[in-house]
Amino acid sequence: MRVKVILNPFADNGRGQRKVEAVQAAARPYGGVDLALTERPGHGIALARQAAEAGYDVVAAAGGDGTVSDVINGLMQAQNPATRLGIIPAGSGNDLAWNAGVPPETEAAVARLFTGSPVKIDLAYVENEYKNGRFAGNNVGVGFDATVVIETENITRLHGFPMYFLAVLRTILFYFNTPRLQIQFDDETVTQETLFIAFGLGRRHGGGFFLTPDARHDDGLIDTCTVAPVSRPTMLRMLLKVMKGTHVTSPFVTMRQNKKITIRANTPLPIHVDGEMFAYPRDNVRQLTVTSHPAALALVV
Predict the structure, then answer these.
(1) Which of 81, 116, 151 is the last residue of a domain?
(2) Is position 300 within any domain?
(3) Are 166 and 69 in the same domain?
(4) How far apart are CA 119 and CA 141, in angstroms?
(5) Domain span at residue 85?
(6) 220: left (phi over 0), alpha (psi -120 to 50) or beta
(7) Both 58 and 173 in a single domain?
């Protein structure tokens, strides 16, 4: 079996570099792996595409959800159904790995690349009005949710869930936007002021927030959590509920499951895909379409 590991040394605020020797040591009993380090944002896409086109059986992302997302997009560009995705968690959130039951320990995760079984997982394709797009493996966020990701870019002394939690608190203090959105959920059209809309293929977001607690990677549907404008005290109370997934009963929250969702806004939208910024407000993106791609990729679990 030929396995390529694409490792992001910058993952988890630079802690990813420490995983190089651990990955290589864990793989030796199975014949070893070919390892490549990413050098810049998006580099993992090209490395994964090249590995799939070279005929590797498994291409594994060693990093956080952003690294996994890049590898997914590279594999989808190569369109080689024989190549399977592997994950070695080494980031701050590791949400797709958690949702899929990938062990957090490096040695166990590497062993799983060789001994695990492939399962088909759903992806979602995200595209704006400029025809810029990419696949999402776990989640997409518009509004408040994406602004949290922007806040994490300014936090360097924390990592993992504490980093995301602090970013949420900062966003609650300083985020005031509630744009009026026209949202097409399959055949249903909704127009409302919106604090945020979160899309989930998996249950967990941001290292410990269960925004879409009923989402599954194998049902062909995209779960959404649409939140109406609320006061800051209400946001703080909802924050505790989101950590348990019990926010779904709030009168300010609407949960849906759909195959295609299109958003139109009269102001620029902040948007993240798998915890990485897809559009900052300065990019002037005002339309987004998210489409389900059922059973699009095989993941070793």
Answers:
(1) 116
(2) no
(3) no
(4) 25
(5) 3-116
(6) left
(7) no
What's the token pair of residue 15?
């802690």
The CATH number that applies at residue 35 is 3.40.50.10330
Please give the Cα distance from 256 to 226 (Å, whole number).
8
Residues 84, 94: Cα–Cα separation, whole Å: 18
Q: How far apart are CA 124 and CA 120, in angstroms?
A: 13
User: At 100, phi and psi to the nearest 5?
Assistant: -90, -5
Looking at the structure, do residues 138 and 266 belong to the same domain, yes or no? yes
Q: How many helices (H) and strands (E) does the chain have?
A: 9, 16
pTM of the model: 0.94
Q: Do residues 110 and 163 both lie within one domain? A: no
CB atoms within 10 A of CB 264: 16
**Among residues 116, 143, 176, which one ends one of the domains?**
116
In this structure, is residue 301 part of a structural domain?
no
pLDDT in tens, the chain (301 residues): 999 999 999 887 777 888 999 999 999 999 999 999 999 999 999 999 999 999 999 999 999 999 999 999 999 999 888 999 999 999 888 999 999 999 999 999 999 999 999 999 999 999 999 999 999 999 999 999 999 999 998 888 887 888 889 999 999 998 889 999 999 999 999 999 999 999 999 999 998 999 999 999 999 999 999 999 999 999 999 999 999 999 999 999 999 999 999 999 999 999 999 999 999 999 999 999 999 999 999 999 9
**Is there a single domain that holds both residue 133 and residue 111?**
no
Residue 126: Cβ-neighbour burial (10 angstroms; 0-12, 13-18, 19+): buried
Type of residue found at 33: V
